[in-house]
Amino acid sequence: MTRPLRIGVRRRLLLAVIGAVALALAIGVTAFNLLLDQRLSASATALAKAQAAAEISELEVVGGRLIVQEGPDAQATIGSPVWVFSGTTALEAPRVSTSISSAATALAGGPERSVRVGETIRLYALPVVQSGERIGTVVAGIPLDAYDETATIAFLGSLALAIVLLGAVTLLTHWILGRALLPVSRMTDDAAAWSAHDLHRRFDLGEPYDELTRLAATLDTLLERLSASLRHEQRFTAELSHELRTPLAKIAAETELALRRERSGDDYRGSLEAVHRNAEQMTRTVDALVSAARQEAGLTRTTSDVRDAVREAAAAVRDGAAAEGIEILLTVPSEPVTVAIEDELLERIVQPLLDNAIRYGQSTVSVALVRNGTNAVVEVVDDGAGVGADERDRIFEPGTRGTAATNMPGGAGLGLALARRLARSAGGDIVARPGEAGGQFSVRLPLA
Question: Are both 318 and 438 inside the same structural domain?
Answer without folding.
Answer: yes
